[in-house]
Amino acid sequence: CGGVLTGLSGVISSPGYPQEYSNNADCSWTIRVSNGSVVTFVFLDFQLENNEGCNFDFVSLFDGDTLSHRHLGKFCGAEKPPNIITTSNHLLVVFKSDFNIGGRGFKAYYYSECQQVLSAVSGDFSSPHFPGIYPNNINCHWSISLAGGYRINLYFPVMDLEDRNRLSDQCDYDSVAVHDGDSQSAALLGRWCGREQPPFILSKGNKLLVVLSTDRNEAHRGFSASYLGVVPVNVSCTRSEFTILIPQQSLPQLERESIYLGNPSCAAQLTSTSYKILAQFVNCGTASQKHRNVTMLVNKLYIDFSAGTQQNVQEYRVQCDAQRKVASVSIVSAEERRLEEQALQTHSHSPGDEARPEAEPHDLSDIVFISICVLAVILMVIAIVWLVLL
């Protein structure tokens, strides 16, 4: 009896359980989980020969993989021992019995806390064994931590967990929880289970914590998740140009040519603290769009994180209401980019496209000329009314 267990969770029991265990048993189980994780050990049933000092039949636990490691407890009798949590990623379980008087023995399960810290600007992660079935009795943490100033956009393409408790209508069994910070004491942004589809999640700061908790019963495929660090982009505008500022500390590894508006010829310049783009509306491919009778000047900011053969370009939609001198910026999600590419492909295959002229960048001289004419007409009307009243 005994052995080495390396799964995220598992069950062990005394020989012959739930029948009476044999005399003179000497069993050892070594539990090993991933580095950085700890082991939680829970007794489900316990009945051994009882005596003071537990010198005849007993279970001993050690905080490591040898008898020389810290002793966590020695148990016998019929009282179920408390839950045990290691400080390392190893646990040694020893069961011994003497030559007479036995009992039903014991049954216990263990689980590990799988933990991962994600610090890249973007990435993907998933539940253990995805798209296979996730283990029971696990408590996994994914901590996303980016540079100061960033916010985090999180999306779950797949969610397949055990359903809600029908009585409480809560995620009491298996669940995924997201916290707006680096600990479970941070604000809870949501908890999901079953096949519920979480919305796009945007953090308030530069840290997010994702927690997967499962019980010891039903299990499903789990989840997959993607996140994207939203660069702190400051955009302002006048009636003729965009000003874009990005703190250098947010993008310390990037060359200025990797940040550009519209096309690579409109790359950022370096100041002492920031990447800066100053672009006239008539340059860099800025175009005008009407929205609810308001003319907006629109362009895209590109930040190229590509390394080697791996492409990784973020897109941000920047726009300006030139009349009010109000600018805004928003990241373009992967789903939005996919839909835009589909629309472009559909447009390029529709009949008559060859004869259709391309949209040209917006020229502000038209707006200025029309505005002057309108103002002149208004002043003329006011003058005529004033003369009539006299």
Structural account:
- With 390 residues, this protein is mostly beta strands.
- It has 3 domains: 2-111, Spermadhesin, CUB domain (Jelly Rolls, Sandwich), CATH 2.60.120; 115-230, Jelly Rolls, CATH 2.60.120; 234-343, Immunoglobulin-like, CATH 2.60.40.
- It is built from 2 helices and 27 strands.
- The strands form 6 sheets. A 5-stranded mixed β-sheet has the order 1-3-8-5-6, with no helix packed on it. A 5-stranded mixed β-sheet has the order 10-12-17-14-15, with no helix packed on it. Strands 21, 24, 25, 26 and 27 form a 5-stranded antiparallel β-sheet that branches.
- It is elongated.
- The N and C termini lie far apart (113 Å).
- Residues 354-363 have low confidence and may be disordered.
- This is CUB domain containing protein 2.
- Keywords: Disulfide bond, Membrane, Repeat, Transmembrane, Transmembrane helix.
- It holds the Pfam family CUB.
- The chain crosses the membrane at residues 367-389.
- Residues 1-113, 114-230 form the CUB domain.
